[in-house]
Write a structure and sequence with these properties.
- It is a single chain.
- This protein has about 325 residues and is α+β, with helices and mostly antiparallel strands.
- It has two domains: about 250 residues, Probable tRNA modification gtpase trme, domain 1 (Gyrase A, domain 2); about 70 residues, Aminomethyltransferase beta-barrel domains (Elongation Factor Tu (Ef-tu), domain 3), CATH 2.40.30.
- The protein is about 25% helix and about 35% strand.
- It has eleven helices and 17 strands.
- The chain is globular, with a radius of gyration of 20 Å.
- It starts with a helix and ends with a helix.
Length: about 325
């Protein structure tokens, strides 16, 4: 049986709690050029209303964090895993010298919820003052805008890291309860955390401290196409990335893949991935997929086992290595 909240997200609109997000504002005339030398994507190219996904790396090319950068017009808003916020804020502060840059922690200034699914634009527009469904639907990935809810400030962020296209809506904490009630009155359904995680895993989206950590190189997690600009200037960790891409032809020792398992048991995080008695990787995220009617997982495997269709074993059950996403986008939008 397909859970009701899962069906709502796939067919109509679901609500995903985003209290696990940390938020940093970067102000000042030099904000874009300052972050341009620190993050992997082309922040300098952003214009008001635009954004990008990026990584923050050590000089060794390993990840400090992944984050989303939104140019709001007068400040840059960074969103990231909440447990990474203090570390990133402290590191960013260390690199401010004579630049016109000011940092601020605005995590507690907003509460937020993501509205996802085929009717996300319509649902979000219905509660925004003078909401325009077509304008929301036209926002590009990572696009953003400022508007109001009952006269109170509201920030709209176009997001895709939930697993379905949608909008993250940021409101002042005092207005969050009536705002959620208004969304529910328009038919949006609250998603259990486990359901939200299922959508993420089906879409093959890695999450920091689940599928990536401080030892991960972005190329291993497969986020380079989204998070790394190959045309911008220098940034911290670039030398390692370029060396792997150009000299190593992008080959890394291990890489994140999807797994489709037989049987009914969902493997645990950390479970060994085995081929002919040899451990070749480990599971990082796993769930039961209602769309595929089987257990699925994300995990790292040695580069000799990356080919889709390769058969391995997890907890004694056969598993097929699969390209990501595990659930195609057409199925996500049915």
């Amino acid at each position: 049986m397909i859970p009701a909240d899962y069906a709502a997200a796939r067919e109509r609109a679901g609500l995903v709690d985003r209290s696990d997000r940390g938020r940093i504002v970067v102000a000042g005339n030099d904000r874009r050029s300052y972050l341009q030398g620190l993050l992997t994507n082309d922040v300098a190219a952003l214009t008001p209303g635009e954004g990008c996904y990026a990584a923050y790396l050590t000089a060794q090319g390993r990840m400090i964090a992944d984050l989303w950068v939104y140019e709001l017009g007068d400040v840059l808003l960074l969103t990231l895993e909440r447990d990474l916020k203090d570390t990133v804020l402290a590191k960013l502060d260390q690199f401010i010298f004579s630049e016109d840059v000011q940092l601020g922690d605005v995590t507690l200034n907003f509460n937020s919820v993501a509205v996802v699914g085929p009717l996300a634009a319509r649902t979000a527009a219905s509660v925004i003052d003078n909401g325009d469904e077509r304008a929301l639907a036209a926002l590009p990935e990572h696009g953003n805008l400022r508007t109001t809810y009952r006269g109170h400030p509201l920030i709209v962020l176009r997001v895709s890291d939930v697993g379905l296209p949608g909008y993250e809506l940021l409101v002042e904490p005092a207005h969050m309860a009536p705002f959620l009630d208004a969304l529910r009155a328009r038919g949006a359904v609250d998603l259990a955390p486990s359901t939200a995680d299922t959508l993420r895993i089906e879409s093959g989206i890695p999450r920091f401290h689940r599928d990536m950590d401080e030892e991960t190189i972005p190329l291993e997690a497969g986020i380079e196409d989204r998070a790394i600009s190959l045309t911008k200037g220098c940034y911290v960790g670039q030398e390692v990335i370029i060396r792997v891409l150009h000299r190593g032809h992008g080959r890394v020792v291990r890489k994140l893949v999807g797994l489709k398992l037989t049987g009914g048991a969902v493997p645990s995080s950390g479970a060994a991935i085995v081929s002919e008695g040899r451990e070749v990787g480990h599971v990082t995220s796993s769930t039961w997929s209602p769309s595929l009617e089987r257990p699925i997982a994300l995990g790292y495997v040695h580069r000799d086992f990356l080919a889709p269709g390769t058969i391995v074993a997890v907890d004694g059950a056969a598993a097929e290595v699969s390209a990501l996403p595990l659930v195609p986008s057409a199925a996500a939008q049915k």
